[in-house]
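Run Riboflavin biosynthesis protein RibD through structure prediction, thanks.
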Amino acid sequence: MQQQHDGVGGADRDVTWMRRALELAARGRRPDPNPRVGCVLVSAAGELVAEGWHRGAGTPHAEVDALAQAGERARGATAYVTLEPCNHTGRTQPCAQALLSAGVTRVVHAQSDPNPRAAGGADVLRSHGVDVTSGVLEQEAIDLNATWTHLVTTGRPWVTWKLASTLDGRSAAADGTSQWITGPVARDDVHAQRARCGAVIIGTGTALTDDPRLTARRADGTLFEDQPLRVVVGERDLRPGARVLDDSAPTWHLRTRDPKEVLARLADEEIHHVWLEGGPTMAAAFLAAGLVDEVVAYVAPVFLGRGRPSVGDLGITTIADALRLEPTDITVLGTDVRITASLKEIH
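Sure, done. The structure for Riboflavin biosynthesis protein RibD is below.
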């Protein structure tokens, strides 16, 4: 495992190795309670010593994973880590101490740890004479763990509202039928997106009307390895035998209508990305409460003329008060279009 970057300046070398650490971090599980982190150990001669990444809660952190492979070769090495080494004892020992014990003499990290329980590793390393460089490819590292960072800094999960709509803004026909507004390519994409989230939320109305499974499935019907927590919100009872209650994924039934209470419960479970699939009433409740961060709209080239709207009453009566979003991605999926847009602020 020899790799060297001859003739590359210090700053460029740091960027090169940090990019590799980010590639490793991206292998981690998106829905995991912990951030995705990668670590690369490089010798004083510029040779790759070892690589590691965090594979999920309860497994070794990226630094410890790399150090275990390096053994004595870690002494005198530089560690490139996508997140500031932690200074917290939880299921594992502090990574800052592990790096010190291994004899690492320089640490380069991208994102500073926003979690006050784990922050401070850089200062500990500096106090023991380790050369620490911070902020290399910081924005890339923040983007990699955007939803986790959001939970840590705001105290609530990042909420993505998913909707499927006709061109005239209908989510169901006048008789209530809605399967299928969009085509198979768009529906497969929805399942792939679900698998990246920690929880998917619907209301009791959707559960009773559509009887969804809410699992993340591949095109052939098999389940993804990661399944979101299924959350049904509302006071009405679910029907015995409802598909959302099967054993393919865990399910909560939260008997409340308060979006803040729902997100607080999920935050307690360290769920940092929520996929909101409820109907127009639930969507309006989350929007009105300022609790939607992003919208993923699957728009089909279809007209219904009548039927259920995509979102309920938001109290907007004039165009000047319209809720305007900032598009971040537009992708054609088969015959449909996926529009991703962020909500900077709810007015």
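The two ends are 55 Å apart (CA to CA).
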